[in-house]
Structures are given as structure tokens and as C-alpha cells.
Fold Calpain catalytic domain-containing protein.
Amino acid sequence: MSYTPLPTKEAVFMESDRECDKLAKSLKLLINGEWKVLKIDFHLPQKSNSFERYAYMVKKQIWVAFIEKGFAKIRKSYEKLSGGVAGIALQQLTGAMTFSVFMEKFNNDENRVWEFIQENRNSKFILTVSTPTIEEESEKKQLLEEYGIRDCHEYSVLDAQVYMGHRLILLAGSGPFGKPKSVRRWGHLPSYKEIREDWCAVDLGFSEFGTFWIDMSELFQYFEYVTVCQYREKWKEIRIRRNVVANTKNTE
């Protein structure tokens, strides 16, 4: 009788690594000023009901989940993805210069904020706005929740239009507390129409849930700062690595 020897543990893992390498996708992120290419496999955390534990994949559109897993690999854990600011994530994704401007820098002038948003939108830069971190059970925290937006949260700026004399900003953010109160006033306006013409009913439904128009005065009242990512398609970059030695000599 002949026996087939069992494969060794090393051989099993080697074969598994080869299979993962063939199926893995590549994700390029800017980490500590240097581009790194990460291999992302198709193993994504799920709940006991087979739904995604983290980024939801509507109609199994997995690109968001892949990017999220790439950031989790950098942070060594999904749990460490909680928090952070949009500026860092946008810079790591695009490599472009990113900066934030606090509302107070505009000297409480709504006109300057509006002009700043319009100028950067005309340049086709990526824009977000952020709500401040607020103490639990505080009056301002209750005010935000009653309005329907989160504290310590980033919202994408999708559009800026003047409608019947009102300067409106179209925002998008994940998981608001229902719909913000501004929807009662501006909910009849279309949201991001120019890119939605070929979307299916499911995508349209989810886009309506996560987007809403807000008046400029409300933006100024509830949000803390604006972030600009100066990314443009077809731009090229040159990165040079250099060691800088601090001057320890007495310069007096």
C-alpha cells in the first residue's frame, strides 16, 4: 500500500500566499512622504449575518472596502481607523497638497467663506467641511443633533449654487441622524445631478440619503473648518529624498 505524504505547514502557507498574490489588487498610498504599493486580497471582515462589518458594499461594489482595508493595513487594525481628519486621508490617496482653514480665519465673514469655496471649486479641487468635537450633553451637542448632523465629522462639498437669493452648499456624509432640518427647506432641489444620469435606482436611493443642501449661514454656524485638497488629473510630481541635518552651532 502506498501513502501520499501530507504537505508541510510551510508548503501549505506558501501555496496560499501564491494564490492570494495572484488574486490580490494593488493600492497605492502616500505614506510618510513616500508612495507605497499595498497588496489587498479579497478577505473582508463580515458580521454573522454575512453583511460587511465595516464599509458596506452596495451591489458588491468593493472599491471602497479595498481602500479601507489598505488604510487598515497601514494602521495595523480596522479599529484604529476611527477618527482622524480628511486632509491626511486625501493627501495619502492623491499625493496632492492639502490644507485646512478654520472659519475664524475668515473674521466671521460669510462672504469670504463663500468666495473661498467657489474659488476652489472652480479650480476643481476636492473640498470637505468638518464639524467640531463637542462635549457630551452640552447645549451645542444637542443643537447639532437636533439639526441632524454629527459632531467631529467630515462632510464632502459637492456643489455650491445660488437659489432664490440663498447661497447653498451641497454636502455628503455617511450616516447622519436621519435627514438634517435643512432638507425640509431645500429637499426638493436635485443633488449632484450631472453625475447621476446613468445610476440605477439603488444608487440613486443611497445618494439621496447621504446628500443634502445647507444654507451658507448654517454652514458658518455648525462647521469648524474647510479642507482643500489641490488634486488635479494629469498633474505630475517629482519627489526627492534628502537628509536634512540640523544646525547645532551657536548662531548668535
Observations:
- Strands lie at 25-31, 34-40, 98-102, 126-130, 154-163, 166-172, 211-215, 225-229.
